[in-house]
């Protein structure tokens, strides 16, 4: 990705094909803060390994991560690891 122009309010990039990019900026001082979402691996994630399936041989990465983080962020009251073992 080549930068064609840049100023205080914008950046212009050049590509050889249509692409989707997400570019962001953050104050470096904010990166030093301790941020805790409350998400606990081994508790708030799925209890099975993501080895894929017949339908999706490469794995269910997006589905598993979005569903586990989504349930956590919605304020669920049941730990996912236990509740899906019933």
Alpha carbon gap, first and last residue = 49 Å
- How many distinct domains? 1
**C-alpha Rg, in Å?**
20 Å
Give the beta-strand count: 2
Summarize the structure.
The protein is an alpha+beta fold.
Which helices and strands appear, and what pairs or packs with what?
Elements: E1 2-6, E2 11-14, H1 61-73, H2 80-83
Antiparallel strand pairs: 1-2
Write up what this structure looks like:
The chain has 86 residues and is of the alpha+beta class. The chain has one domain. Helices cover 20% and strands 10% of the residues. The chain has helices at residues 61-73, 80-83, and strands spanning 2-6, 11-14. A two-stranded antiparallel ribbon has the order 1-2. A hairpin with a 4-residue loop joins strand 1 and strand 2. The protein is flat, with a radius of gyration of 20 Å. It starts with a strand and ends with a helix. The mean pLDDT is 78.
